[in-house]
Amino acid sequence: ENCRIIDTYQEADAVLYHGPDFHGYNQHITSKQIAVFWVLESPVNYRPNRINWTMTYRLDSDILLPYGVIRKAEGPIQVDYEQLWNEKKASTVWLISNCGHNNARIQLANALQQGGLNIDIFGRCGKPTPNNCDGTSKQSDKCVAELFRPYKFAISFENSLCPNYITEKFYELLEDRYTVPIVMQRSITRKNLQAPNNSFIAVDDFKNLADLVNYIHTVENSKEEYLKYQSWREHYTVKSAYFSIEETGFCALCKKLMANNFTTKYYENMSSWHSPNTCEQPQDGFAKKYLDLVTALPL
């Protein structure tokens, strides 16, 4: 209640620079104002300039701006396993709107399909969705939740493999879609975000895609095995923070400003801190490693 978001930077205590639109340090802000690098996307086009604080999804940011939060529940939570199992009628779904990224995630999903995994791909990179649910802006719509709920699994491949970079789509799968995410790397999801081990399946837990496909078939055809991936719900809560100002970094930014603990700390070169070089490069790509082994799939 002590903070306001305004669009007149001359009156502001903190000035936020949105990463993708940051074209140069504003020399007109005063020494009493805090310059904050604010970004939710992975490293793309950034220019070297001086910034005081960082406000991103990365865990080493001055102000953490998460896509979601996973918390230990205060007490046991009742889960209706019978209803959950009964509503799961289909195998795997993927809603994807950006077909242009070069981490080979689409090729990886296609290889899984080729190997026998039944994936319904919707969106601009697949078939049209029911009720016009296409588009990134609609990922949090009720129609998307309804689309996902009958599926046991969902592809949750990010458009880039960068430290701590897990977007709201992963959290939403756990929060209200009751669908088990299939991610690329366990380390990013588990080590960095503390997601329960049995809340998702990671490609890199398997030597090749054939082993992964066989494992998913085993789990989806066994009520007991599948519900093991839902048992964490008794002990954890999940909330997508993307559209909740209380759960995002803005309240933390306000508190930091109210503490009046302004220091002379600054990042002289943001391009080295938030650089594409911190991400896995396409030529050394994670997906490529598995695609090179695609001959191991039963065709």
Automatic annotation (TrEMBL):
Signal peptide: none annotated. Its main location: Golgi. It comes from the Eukaryota. It is found in: Golgi apparatus, Golgi stack membrane. Residues 7-68 form the Fucosyltransferase N-terminal domain. The keyword Transferase applies. Residues 85-273 form the Fucosyltransferase C-terminal domain. GO terms for molecular function: fucosyltransferase activity. Pathway: Protein modification; protein glycosylation. Keywords: Glycoprotein, Glycosyltransferase, Golgi apparatus, Membrane, Signal-anchor, Transferase, Transmembrane, Transmembrane helix. GO terms for cellular component: Golgi cisterna membrane. InterPro entries: Glyco_tran_10_C, Glyco_tran_10_N, Glyco_trans_10, GT10-like_C_sf. It is a single-pass type II membrane protein. Its EC number is 2.4.1.-. Belongs to the glycosyltransferase 10 family. PANTHER family: ALPHA-(1,3)-FUCOSYLTRANSFERASE C-RELATED. This is Fucosyltransferase. It comes from Syphacia muris. The lineage of its organism: Eukaryota, Metazoa, Ecdysozoa, Nematoda, Chromadorea.
